[in-house]
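Box 3.1 A note on notation
Throughout this textbook, protein chains are presented in two layers. The first layer is the amino acid sequence; the second is a token string describing backbone geometry. Keep the layers aligned when reading.
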Amino acid sequence: MMQSSKLKLGSHIKHPEHGDGTVIFVGVDHIKAAFDDGTERFLLRDEHRMEAARKTLPWPESTFVREHDKVKHDTDYHWKPVFNISKVPHTIIPEDSKKALCINKGYGDVYKSARSMPATWSQGVFIQWRYSEYSVTYVLDETNQRVGSFPNTELGCQNSLTLQTVHVWENGLEAQITARWGAVDVNFYDTHHLANRLWYEAGKGYDFLLAGLAYDAIPIYGYSNQTERIPMIFLPDSKYDIDNYQFRAPIKSVKAFTWLEQDGWKVRATVMRFCEEDCDLDIYITQRAWLGTQPPHVGQIIEGRLWLQGFLWAPAEQMQSANQRTRQRVKP
């Protein structure tokens, strides 16, 4: 097995579960490999040899990987679409805005998991400063010290994913999720992590609401949404974190919004397609990020870079039960 420090594009690896593969992306802390069985997977560089073995462990070790303190996340960049980075709101929210504060609530606050909270897990809270469906969220530890902040939406495009790994940050309160979407693994920042973490289990299906906050986006000409095969792109942006992506996608719908006094457009676009099934994503494009001369419109092809975030809507088994009850109610 090749040492992780020597991995590069084109390196051959042998995974105990997926077999032979080729490295197609190398990041600071993660690699992505295309395996001979047709799958593609993100793996931690230092743990790619332990991926399959970890799944044989009991919960939560089977699902959660705690990152070491050398893993760095440039979260300031998430504010680029809505703020000048030098003005990121790291300080306490202004006094006259405190009435807008509320606790970030998620699926796990309404539907309690049967699992008990592990004693070693960090405790804290996500506090939201609401702007309708568009928020600023502050991450506070158990001493009420701010350890993070991010812009987030309580909306998104519902997609069914199979959870692979939860990458818990060094602060123990924030995390990124690796999950299988169609035929590929994707990574996204979990905006409701503290509320929902007890529900997560590797290998199980969940419905997540996914949203992309565009760092930049531009219209591409020469293609039409009526074209039979549009060259869609949804690839990791190797310059940044694992939840940053490059995209090219046709627009299905457009809706105006305002986020932190930034006007913009929520576009639903098809970023991937598997077996004729569209994988759609809501991409939020502020005027600050839009590089076109006219607003985006349905049928247009756009490309750019985005930060992918999401949160748990419901476990797949509950969605199936709800659908079954609905079918029974409408049965003639």
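The two ends are 60 Å apart (CA to CA). The chain has four helices and 18 strands.
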